[in-house]
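So, does this match?
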Amino acid sequence: MTNLVNTGGVQRVLFLGYQDSKLINFLKDDGLQVKVCDERISLDFVKQERFDFLISYGYRYIINEEILTHFCQNAINLHISLLPFNRGSDPNFWSFVKDTPKGVSIHYLDKGLDTGDIIVQKELTFDTAKESFSSTYKILRDEIEKLFMQNWQEIKTKKCKRVKQEGEFSVHKSIDKQHLIKYLHDGWDTNIKSFLDKIKDKI
């Protein structure tokens, strides 16, 4: 029988997004039942499966407000940007294109797009001459997964802090990058500095 003291009352986790994430086994090793899904979900599905915690990580869909209300502050998102910069799509890409601070953030989900209170963040720096978009993406994923594992016990027991997002921010949609994609001559393996040199007069 699951020890609810050890789990902070959390038993059934809905994990939305990356099916290859190491966090799935991490959560199972913590004694939790984990359902992984990358398709659009409904409130009926959530109620039927009796989930009591939601984790969004690389999930492609907006989670509607009635689902978030159902989870009652037990819904968080893992976002590979230093929020409030680069909310929305392609945060790694835009952090270099717009030369904004880079990093990772774990935050509560609310009805806005990556606007919820921040639980924990980590700022990172990169040498663009030595990195590609794919290499920095991998680093960001590794870093946010480590940050999650380091802070999960406080998150699930509601002992974590929450800080409102304030000040300057940016947000992007997937379509926003379309006019720049043609300059990624090696796809996401394109060297970042060479890419930025090519587009400096295009933005």
